[in-house]
Specification:
By secondary structure, the chain is an alpha/beta fold. The protein folds into two domains: 135 residues, ATPase, nucleotide binding domain (Nucleotidyltransferase, domain 5, 2-Layer Sandwich), CATH 3.30.420.40; 164 residues, 2-Layer Sandwich (Nucleotidyltransferase, domain 5). It is 44% helix and 19% strand. A five-stranded mixed sheet has the order 3-2-1-4-5, with helices on both faces. A five-stranded mixed sheet has the order 8-7-6-9-10. A hairpin with a 4-residue loop joins strand 1 and strand 2. Helix 5 packs parallel to helix 7 and helix 8 crosses helix 9. The protein is globular. The two termini are 13 Å apart. 50% of the residues are buried. The chain binds 5'-O-[(R)-(carboxyoxy)(hydroxy)phosphoryl]adenosine (KG4) and zinc ion. 5'-O-[(R)-(carboxyoxy)(hydroxy)phosphoryl]adenosine binds next to helix 5 and helix 6.
Amino acid sequence: MYVLGIETSCDETSVAVVEDGVRLKGLSTSSSAEIHASYGGVIPEIASRWHLESILPVCEKALTRAGIDVFEVDRIAVTTEPGLLPSLLVGISFAQGLAIAINKPFVGVNHLIAHLYAPFIDNPNPPSFPFIGLVVSGGHTQLFLVKSWRKEDIICLGLARDDAAGEALDKAAKMLGLGYPGGPIIEKLASKGEIKYRFPCYYGDDLDFSFSGLKTSLLYFLQKNPEAKVEDICASYQHVVMETLVRKTLDAARKYKISEVVVGGGVSANKYLRGLFREMAKNIHIHFSDIHLCLDNAAIIAGLGFHHYLELT
Ligand code: KG4
Ligand code: ZN
């Protein structure tokens, strides 16, 4: 079964064709991130106009790469939540129009859960159920217990009370005058620095996260230490964000006696985070996807959409 996935929740317009939920046949993504960079964050009006202009050529390119005609598509899956409303509406409206044109059904997919689907694509050793899922994206940091892809089997264990991990990196980069998105810029500079400073980060007994205090501590640090090297600041700040994510995820795995962990979302592209997980997880198997599937893309939407159809039929 060919599922055509559509993703427009933020600043990436992406369309993909995935066969039987696991084989990626064609993917095309067009990002407006460079335009947002000059504003230091995503501007919803610009993102949605970009989606409007890009969605048709991106869809045609994905089909060409997959080597199929649009009438060979069996099902359509589209991100319906969460995301920027004007951006989501472009993808949803396009999906509805396409569904009518080719006379095939469409299904809505949750973008956060789809991030956990990434290591199931083109992977000969995919994760097995049940697993603890950590989603770390620009707008969300959330821990799930996932027993199957059925909605009632996906249980939220904890979430960011304020800023998400990606947001904490993006805002820190903005404070340091480094540009947007901050995560990859901080990662690059951190690789040339030392973990010299101890930034405090909330760590409660529950499985929730809070990164806004950390961001404030960076602000005060910068006021008091104008001479500190940016590479060392990035290394120290990145360390505390990533260590908090790893410790909380492993706490959840121990609490629920689960030995499989899936990490998804843009921040999971971070190599320091991957290394720390491997170092700190003793008897726990950690799954990441290829870097190109960590960031927003439609392959994860098509893949998870396939399972939603299986549930309906
Ligand atoms: O999942 P995603 O592409 O979009 C959302 O759904 O939000 O995540 C974007 C976030 C941004 O905050 C960006 O700074 C962060 O992922 N990010 C990274 C890296 N690449 C992207 N953070 C740390 N290290 C990276 N290499
Ligand atoms: Zn995302």
